[in-house]
TrEMBL record, chain A:
InterPro entries documented for this protein: ABC_transp_permease, BCAA_transport_permease
Keyword Translocase attached: no
Subcellular location field: Cell membrane
Membrane topology, from the record: Multi-pass membrane protein
Stated name of the protein: Branched-chain amino acid transport system permease protein
Family that this chain belongs to: Belongs to the binding-protein-dependent transport system permease family. LivHM subfamily.
Automatic annotation (TrEMBL), chain B:
Keywords: ATP-binding, Cell membrane, Membrane, Nucleotide-binding, Transmembrane, Transmembrane helix, Transport
Superkingdom of origin: Bacteria
Transmembrane region(s): 33-52, 59-77, 83-102, 114-132, 152-174, 204-222, 242-266, 273-297
Membrane topology annotation: Multi-pass membrane protein
Protein name: Branched-chain amino acid transport system permease protein
Localisation: Cell membrane
PANTHER family for this protein: ABC TRANSPORTER ATP-BINDING PROTEIN (PTHR45772:SF2), CONSERVED COMPONENT OF ABC TRANSPORTER FOR NATURAL AMINO ACIDS-RELATED (PTHR45772)
Automatic annotation (TrEMBL), chain C:
Protein name (record): Branched-chain amino acid transport system substrate-binding protein
Taxonomic superkingdom: Bacteria
Lineage: Bacteria, Pseudomonadati, Pseudomonadota, Alphaproteobacteria, Hyphomicrobiales
Residue span, Leucine-binding protein domain: 21-374
Pfam families tied to this protein: Peripla_BP_6
Keyword Lyase attributed: no
Alphabetically ordered keywords of this record: Amino-acid transport, Signal, Transport
Residues annotated as signal peptide: 1-20
Family to which this protein belongs: Belongs to the leucine-binding protein family.
Length: 346, 587, 383
C-alpha cells in the first residue's frame, strides 16, 4: 500500500461516508420528530437514482405512477377523515393536493420525458416525482399511528420498506442502473488524482448539512420541527401540529433522499433493493450519534465509510464481518459515555 | 370452563388432529408456523415482556441449525446428541454476547444485535468448514423411539411438542417471582433494582432463554429441511421474527403462535392468489403483504391477540393459598434506636451543588419529614439515600452499616424500601402481583425452579404476604384488578404496600401526597400514623407543608441544597429562615 | 384457526388434481437478491408450448425470494398440491441444494437453472432426481484459460460476489489456474448491492495482473469493470455468462468494450457458423423470445429454462408410452428417459446425459464472445 492508494481509499471512504451522512441526518431528524426509524429511507434514495436513470433513458419512470397511486390513497384517507370527524376544510385542501400534485407532475413528466431534456431539467423532474412521496408515505402509513410505540412504528417502517422494494422491482426491474455523472473527470496532482464526482458529492453533502443547519436555526418551520423533537406535547400546546411537523420531516427526508440517490447513482450501480443496505449503514451512523446528535451522526457516517473502505482493501471477503464487529466496541464506548439511560417508554 | 380455557382446549385438539386430517402441504405450512412460533416466542419474552429489542434472533436459530448440521454430518452424531450441543452453543454465545451488549442503553442495544448478527452471518458464509455460502447438505432424519421422522406429518408432532414445551416454559416463568421481575424490566428497571432485583442478570437470563428457544427452532429446521446455509439466518429473517411478534401481539405468549401463523398463512395465500389471478408470484405479493401489515397495525396496534382477548372475559384471578407459610422476617430495632444517619451528604452535578452538607438522623418508630420548595434538592437527596445516585461527599449509614457507594439493590437489602414520586407500578399487572414484587428479596427461587414449577410453595407464601400487606393498607378488595386501573391516590397506597412487602426497617416516601385529593391525604396520613405506631421508621420527602406538619415527629427544611432549619414542626414553622424560604417570594 | 384456514384453502385448491395433464412446476427467484436470474426464466416459461405429444401441459411458477426455506415450501406446494411431474429451477445454488430433500423423497425430477456442479453430482441419493443444465464452470474455465494462453496473458486476478455464486465460480477457475500454472495475483470479494468496490479494485491494480476475471452475475458484475477502467487498468477483462444481458451492456457502456466472456452459444445464436450444432435451436428460441420481449432482451437464464423444458419434453414423450402423468411411475420414467438423452440439442449445449452424469455438456456448450461497439460479437476459436 502506498500513499496514492491510501489517498484513494480515504477518498472512497469519505465519499461513501458523505452519502451515509445524509441518510443518517435524515434518520435522526425523522426519528426525533416522529419517533419513526425510517427504514424505508433507503428506498427513497434508490427511487431517486432509478427515476433519474429512467429519465436519462427517455422513459416515463414508474415512480411517477407510484406517486399518483399513493396520492389517491392519501386523498381517500383525508376524505374519510372529513366524512367522519369535524368537517374541517383542511382535509379537503389536503385531499386535493394529494391527488393534484402527483397528477400534474405525472402529466409534466409524460410530456417531457420522451424529448430528452438537459441534466438540470432531469434533476428537477426527479425531485418533483420523488419528493411528494415523502408526505404521501407519512399520511398513508404513519399519521394514523402518531402515538404508537416505537417498536410498532419500526415494524410499519419495515413493512413500508417491503412495499416500496416490491413496487421498485415492478417499476424498474431487477437489473441495476447508473446515473450519468453531473460532473465527470479527474483532478490530477502529480501522481495523485481525485475524482471530481467524489468531490462534488462531498461538497453537496456539506452544503445540504449547512442548509439544514440554517433551516433549523433560522426559519419558523425549522424551529417548529425542533420544538416537536424536543417536546411533542409542549409543541402541540403552543399550536405546532404534530401532523404538520411529521409531513414536513418526511418531505425533507424525501428531498435529501432523492438528492443522495442522484449523487450515489453516478458512482455506484443502484438496484431496486440497494436501499436496504445503505439505509442500514446510515442507521448505524445515526445510532452512533445516539439518534439525537446531528454532528455525531455525520461523524459516525464518515467513520463507517472509512471502516468499510479500509476493510474492503485488506480482507474483502470479511468486509462486513469486520465493519459490523468493529462497531460493537464503538457502541459500548458510546453507550457508557452517554451515561445513565433514561427510562424507556413502557 | 371459561372461554379462554375452551379456546385453549380447542386449539390443542385441532393441533393434535391437524397432521392426520390436513393435506400434506398444509402440514408443511403448520411445521413452518411451529418453527416460527418457537423463535418468535423468544422475541415475545425478550422484546415484548423484557423490553429488549433484538434483531438477532435468527442468528441463534442459525447456531442451533449449524451445530446439529456439523455434528451430525462431520462427526456422525445422532441428532438427539447434537441437540444439547446446539443448545449449549447458543446459550454460551448468548451469555458471551449478552454479557457484553446487554449493558448497552437505549438504541445501542438493538443496533448491537444487528451488528453481531450480520458479522456472524458473513463469517459463516466465508467459513469453508461450514460449507461457506453453499451450506451443509445431507443431514440425517431424526428418529424417535425407533420411528424415523422423515416426512412432514410425523415431524410436525416433534415440532409442536417443542413449541408447547417452549410456551409452557415461558408461561411458568412469567407466573413466578422471577417472572414478575422480568415483567418490570421494561421501563421499570430503576424500581425493580430498588426492590433487590438484579436486572442485568435477569436480562442476560431472558436473552439466554430466548436463544435456547431459537436454537431449538434451528435444530428442528435443520432436520426438517435437512440442509442448512446462511440465508435463513440473516438479518432480514431476524426482522421477520420481530414482525411476527408485533403482528401477533408482542406482549402475549399466544402472540408468537398467532403472529407466526398469520404471517406464514398470509404469505401462502397471497402467493396462491397471485399465481391464480396473475399467473405468477413475486413482487406483487411482497407489496400486498406489506400493505396488509400496515393496515393491520393501524387498526390493532397492539397486535392480533390483544385485539381479540380484549373482547373476552378477564382471565381467572390468581389464587392465594390459605395455608401458605410466612416469609422470613428481619429483626427489628427497638423503638428509639438510630436506623438511618446522613452525615454531611454532598452531591454535585458539574459545578452545581444540588445537595450541600445535609445531615440528619432517623430513629426507629418516628416519622422524619424533609421539606423545601421546588428545586431545593429534596429529590436528589432521596436518590442519594436510596442509592440511585452516588454521593460526592459525606456518609450515609443504615442500621449502623455504611451505605456509601452501595447500589440501590444493596441498600434495599439493608432494610430500606421506597416509593416513587412518579408512580412506578406495572399497570398491566394485577395489584396483588405488583405488591408481591416488593417481597422479591425475601424469597430465593430462581428461573429454573420457576420453569419446572418447583416454586409453588414459595410462590404461595409470596402471594399470601402481598395479600397481607394489601389488607394492612386497606386495598385487599382491589387485589385482582390491573394496577393501572386504580386512581392515583390508590396507586400511591399500592406503592406503600409494595414497599411494606419487603419487610423494611426504614420506609422512604417520595412526595406521597402529590396529586391526592383531601380525603385521600387524610387516609394516607392515618395509614402512616398507624405504621409508626407499629414501630416503622419513615422518612417523607414532601413539599406539601400542611400534610407534613400534622404528621411528622421532626422536620428538616431544605433550600438551594442546604438544610436551613430542623426540629419539631412547631418550632420549624416559626423559624425566620423557613418563613423567608416559603413566603419570601410572595411578600 | 390455522386449521380452519388450512381446510378452507384445501377445499378451494382440491379441484386442480383431477384432470389428466402434464404439470410442470417452477421454483424461481422472482424477488430477492437473485431476481435478475429468475425473471427471464419466468418470461421464457410463459412462452413454452402448452402441449407435449397429445397431453396438455400446465405450468405453475412460484417465487422463492432467493431463500432456501421458501424454496422448499414452494417445492412442497408444487409436489403436494399441484402434483407436478417435474420441477424447473430453482435459480441459485443454495436453493437448489435445499430442494434435493424434496425431490428425492417425492420422486420428482428437478432441473436446476443454477451453475454449481455440486447440485447434480455425484449422482447418488437425492441427486438421482436432480439435473443441472448450465455448462460446468470447468468448461467455461477451460475456454477462458485457452484464450488467455493464445493471447499470451500469464497472470490473473479475480473479483466476485461474496456469496455462493462467487465461491463456486472463482473456486473452479482457481483450480484451472493451478492446473495450468497461471499465477493468481488477487482474489477479491464484494456484496451484490455494495455501493463501492474501489478498495478491492485498488488492490487488484496494485498486483498488476495480465487479466481480471469477474465472478459475479447481472449488472452488479459491471461495477468492478467500471472501477477498473476508471482507475486506469489497461489489461484484459473477462466477464462471464451470468452477465450476458443487455442491461449489463447498458450499465457498462464504454468500460465494457473489449471485454471477453465464455458463454453458451445462444447469446450469439445468429452469428454462429452454420456448422455449429445448436445454431438452429438457439436462433429459433432467441427470436421467439425477442419477438415478445423486445430486441436484445435475450437472457441465458431464460435459455437454460428453455433447455430444461426441452429435456423434460424429451423425458415426457418417452414416459407417456408407459405411464400416466401425475403418478410416481410417470415421474420415474421421465427421470430415466432424461438421464439417457443422447445428443439432445438445446439452445446452450448438446446434451449427452447418463445415469452418472446429470449435466451432460461438453466444450460445445461454451464459446468466446467479445463486447464490441456495445454488442456481443462471436470470436471464432479453433477446437
Amino acid at each position: 500500500m502506498n500513499s496514492i492508494i491510501a489517498l484513494l481509499l480515504i477518498q472512497d471512504g469519505l465519499t461513501m461516508g458523505a452519502v451515509y451522512a445524509l441518510l443518517a441526518l435524515v434518520l435522526v431528524m425523522v426519528f426525533s420528530v416522529t419517533r419513526v426509524i425510517l427504514v424505508a429511507q433507503g428506498e427513497l434514495v434508490s427511487y431517486g437514482a432509478l427515476t433519474m436513470a429512467s429519465l436519462q433513458a427517455g422513459h416515463l419512470p414508474g415512480t411517477a405512477l407510484i406517486a399518483v397511486a399513493g396520492g389517491v390513497i392519501a386523498a381517500a384517507m383525508e376524505l374519510w377523515a372529513y366524512a367522519r370527524g369535524p368537517r374541517s376544510r383542511t382535509h379537503l385542501v389536503a385531499a386535493a393536493l394529494y391527488v393534484l400534485v402527483p397528477l400534474a407532475v405525472f402529466g409534466l413528466v409524460a410530456a417531457l420525458a420522451p424529448q430528452g431534456s438537459g441534466a438540470f431539467v432531469r434533476v428537477l423532474l426527479t425531485l418533483l416525482i420523488v419528493v411528494p412521496l415523502g408526505p404521501i408515505l407519512y399520511r398513508v402509513a404513519f399519521q394514523p399511528l402518531a402515538s404508537a410505540p416505537v417498536l410498532v412504528l419500526l415494524i410499519v417502517a419495515v413493512a413500508l420498506h417491503f412495499v416500496l422494494t416490491g413496487l421498485g422491482l415492478i417499476a424498474f426491474g431487477a437489473e441495476g442502473v447508473r446515473v450519468a455523472p453531473l460532473i465527470d473527470g479527474m483532478l490530477r496532482f502529480g501522481p495523485y488524482f481525485l475524482s471530481a464526482q467524489a468531490l462534488f458529492t462531498i461538497a453537496i453533502t456539506l452544503a445540504l448539512i449547512a442548509a439544514l443547519f440554517v433551516f433549523f436555526g433560522s426559519t419558523l418551520s425549522g424551529k417548529a420541527l425542533r420544538a416537536t423533537a424536543f417536546n411533542e406535547v409542549g409543541a402541540r400546546l403552543v399550536g405546532i401540529s404534530t401532523t404538520g411537523s411529521g409531513l414536513l420531516a418526511f418531505s425533507l427526508a424525501a428531498l435529501i433522499g432523492t438528492v443522495s440517490g442522484i449523487l450515489i447513482g453516478s458512482f455506484a450501480t443502484i438496484y431496486y433493493d440497494t436501499g436496504f443496505i445503505i439505509g442500514l449503514k446510515g442507521f448505524v451512523a445515526a445510532i452512533l450519534g445516539g439518534l439525537g446528535s446531528y454532528p455525531l451522526a455525520a461523524f459516525g457516517a464518515v467513520l463507517v465509510g472509512l471502516l468499510e473502505s479500509g476493510s474492503s482493501f485488506f480482507a474483502s471477503a470479511f468486509k462486513d464481518v469486520l465493519v459490523f464487529a468493529l462497531i460493537i466496541p464503538i457502541l459500548m464506548w458510546r453507550s457508557f459515555s452517554a451515561g445513565h439511560a433514561e427510562e424507556e417508554e413502557e | 370452563m371459561t372461554i379462554r380455557t375452551t379456546l385453549l382446549v380447542v386449539f390443542l385438539l385441532a393441533l393434535a388432529a391437524a397432521p392426520f386430517v390436513l393435506p400434506e402441504y398444509y402440514v408443511t405450512l403448520l411445521n413452518y408456523i411451529g418453527l416460527g412460533s418457537l423463535a418468535t416466542l423468544g422475541i415475545v419474552l425478550l422484546t415484548g415482556i423484557g423490553g429488549l429489542t433484538s434483531f438477532g434472533q435468527a442468528a441463534f436459530v442459525g447456531i442451533g441449525a449449524y451445530a446439529t448440521a456439523y455434528a451430525t454430518t462431520a462427526w456422525g452424531f445422532s441428532p438427539w446428541f447434537a441437540l444439547p450441543l446446539g443448545l449449549f452453543a447458543a446459550a454460551a454465545c448468548a451469555l458471551a454476547i449478552g454479557a457484553v451488549t446487554l449493558r448497552l442503553s437505549g438504541h445501542y442495544l438493538p443496533l448491537s444485535t444487528i451488528a453481531w448478527s450480520l458479522s456472524l452471518y458473513y463469517l459463516v458464509g466465508n467459513l469453508p468448514v461450514l460449507g461457506a455460502h453453499d451450506g451443509i447438505t445431507g443431514l440425517p432424519a431424526v428418529s424417535l423411539f425407533g420411528v424415523v421422522l422423515d416426512d412432514a406429518r410425523s415431524f410436525s408432532f416433534l415440532i409442536w411438542i417443542f413449541v408447547l414445551l417452549g410456551l409452557l416454559s415461558v408461561h411458568n416463568l412469567l407466573g413466578s417471582r422471577a417472572g414478575r421481575a422480568i415483567r418490570c424490566l421494561r421501563g421499570r428497571s430503576t424500581m425493580a433494582e430498588a426492590f433487590g432485583v438484579d436486572t442485568t442478570r435477569l436480562k442476560v437470563a431472558i436473552f439466554v432463554h430466548a436463544a435456547l428457544l431459537a436454537a431449538a427452532s434451528g435444530w428442528l429446521y435443520a432436520h426438517l429441511v435437512r440442509f442448512v446455509n446462511p440465508t435463513p439466518f440473516g438479518l432480514n429473517v431476524g426482522i421477520e421474527y420481530l414482525f411476527m411478534a408485533v403482528v401477533g401481539g408482542v406482549g402475549q405468549l399466544a402472540g408468537a403462535v398467532v403472529g407466526a401463523g398469520v404471517m406464514v398463512v398470509l404469505r401462502d395465500v397471497l402467493q396462491d392468489v397471485a399465481a391464480r389471478v396473475l399467473g405468477v408470484s413475486g413482487a406483487i405479493e411482497i407489496v400486498a403483504y406489506g400493505v396488509l401489515i400496515i393496515v393491520l397495525l393501524q387498526n390493532a396496534r397492539a397486535g392480533i391477540v390483544p385485539f381479540v382477548t380484549r373482547r373476552l372475559p378477564a382471565p381467572e384471578p390468581l389464587k392465594v393459598p390459605d395455608d401458605a407459610p410466612s416469609l422470613p422476617m428481619r429483626d427489628r430495632p427497638a423503638r428509639g434506636e438510630t436506623v438511618l444517619v446522613a452525615d454531611k451528604v454532598v452531591r454535585r452535578f458539574g459545578g452545581l451543588v444540588a445537595v450541600n452538607e445535609v445531615s440528619f438522623t432517623l430513629k426507629a418508630g418516628e416519622i422524619l419529614g424533609v421539606i423545601g420548595p421546588n428545586g431545593a434538592g429534596k429529590s436528589t437527596l432521596f436518590n442519594l439515600l436510596s442509592g440511585v445516585l452516588p454521593l460526592t461527599g459525606g456518609a450515609i449509614s443504615v442500621l449502623g452499616r455504611a451505605a456509601n457507594g452501595l447500589t440501590s439493590r444493596a441498600i434495599a437489602r439493608l432494610g430500606l424500601a421506597r416509593t416513587f414520586q412518579h408512580v412506578q407500578l406495572r399497570g398491566d399487572m394485577s395489584v396483588l402481583e405488583n405488591v408481591a414484587l416488593g417481597a422479591h428479596m425475601r424469597s430465593r427461587k430462581g428461573i429454573l425452579s420457576a420453569i419446572l414449577r418447583l416454586d409453588r410453595k414459595e410462590e404461595g407464601a409470596l402471594l399470601a404476604e402481598a395479600l397481607r400487606q394489601l389488607e394492612r393498607v386497606g386495598l385487599a378488595d382491589s387485589r385482582n384488578v390491573p394496577a393501572g386501573s386504580l386512581a392515583l391516590g390508590q396507586q400511591r397506597i399500592v406503592e406503600i404496600a409494595r414497599a411494606l412487602a419487603s419487610d423494611p426497617v426504614v420506609l422512604l416516601l417520595d412526595e406521597p401526597a402529590a396529586g391526592l385529593r383531601y380525603h385521600e391525604k387524610q387516609a394516607l396520613a392515618a395509614l402512616l400514623d398507624s405504621l409508626r405506631a407499629e414501630g416503622m421508621s419513615i422518612l417523607i420527602v414532601e413539599h406539601d407543608m400542611d400534610f407534613v406538619m400534622n404528621l411528622v415527629d421532626r422536620l428538616v427544611v431544605m433550600e438551594f441544597g442546604r438544610p436551613i432549619a430542623s426540629g419539631v414542626p412547631g418550632a420549624v414553622q416559626n423559624d425566620p429562615a423557613v418563613l423567608e424560604a416559603y413566603l419570601g417570594g410572595a411578600v | 384457526m390455522k386449521t380452519i384456514v388450512g381446510i378452507v384453502c384445501a377445499v378451494l385448491l382440491g379441484t386442480s388434481a383431477a384432470k389428466a395433464e402434464i404439470v410442470i412446476g417452477a421454483v424461481l427467484s422472482l424477488t430477492g437478491p437473485a431476481a435478475s436470474l429468475g425473471i427471464p426464466a419466468k418470461s421464457t416459461i410463459d412462452l413454452l408450448p402448452r402441449q407435449i405429444g397429445d397431453e396438455t401441459v400446465r405450468y405453475v411458477v412460484l417465487d422463492d425470494a432467493s431463500d432456501p426455506s421458501a424454496a422448499v415450501r414452494a417445492a412442497r406446494k408444487l409436489v403436494d398440491e399441484h402434483k407436478v411431474d417435474a420441477i424447473i429451477g430453482p435459480s441459485v445454488t443454495p436453493t437448489s441444494l435445499a430442494l434435493l430433500e424434496v425431490l428425492g423423497p417425492s420422486k420428482t425430477p428437478g432441473i436446476s437453472l443454477a451453475g454449481s456442479g455440486i447440485i447434480a453430482s455425484p449422482v447418488e441419493g437425492n441427486k438421482r432426481w436432480s439435473f443441472k443444465l448450465a455448462a460446468g464452470e470447468d468448461i467455461q474455465a477451460g475456454r477462458v484459460f485457452d484464450h488467455l494462453a493464445k493471447t499470451g496473458i500469464s497472470s490473473v486476478a479475480f473479483i466476485g460476489f461474496n456469496d455462493s455464486f462467487g465461491d463456486s465460480f472463482i473456486g473452479t477457475f482457481k483450480k484451472e489456474a493451478a492446473a495450468r500454472n497461471v499465477p493468481v495475483l488477487a482474489d477479491e470479494r464484494y456484496g451484490r448491492t455494495d455501493t463501492s468496490v474501489t478498495a478491492q479494485v485498488l488492490k487488484i491494480i496494485s498486483a498488476n495482473p495480465g487479466a481480471v476475471i469477474i465472478g459475479a452475475s447481472g449488472t452488479p458484475g459491471v461495477m468492478p469493470v467500471l472501477e477498473l477502467r476508471k482507475l486506469g487498468y489497461g489489461g484484459a477483462i473477462y466477464i462471464n455468462q451470468g452477465m450476458a444481458n443487455s442491461d449489463v451492456l447498458r450499465v457498462g457502456g464504454a468500460a465494457l468494450e473489449g471485454a471477453f466472456l465464455p458463454t453458451p452459444p445462444a447469446l450469439v445464436a445468429e452469428q454462429l457458423p452454420d456448422a455449429n450444432p445448436v445454431k438452429a435451436v438457439a436462433t429459433e428460441y432467441v427470436q421467439a423470445y425477442e419477438k415478445v420481449h423486445g430486441p436484445n432482451s435475450r437472457s441465458l437464464f431464460g435459455a437454460t429454462a428453455q433447455d430444461a423444458f426441452l429435456l423434460i419434453r424429451h423425458g415426457a414423450e418417452q414416459a407417456l408410452k408407459s405411464a400416466k402423468p401425475g403418478t410416481a411411475e410417470f415421474r420415474t420414467a421421465v427421470r430415466d428417459a432424461m438421464e439417457n438423452a443422447r445428443e439432445l440439442i438445446g439452445t446452450e449445449a448438446v446434451f449427452n446425459l447418463t445415469p452418472t452424469d446429470h449435466n451432460g455438456t461438453d466444450r460445445r456448450a461454451s464459446v468466446i464472445v467479445r463486447v464490441d461497439g456495445g454488442k456481443w460479437v462471436y470470436v471464432p476459436v479453433d477446437d
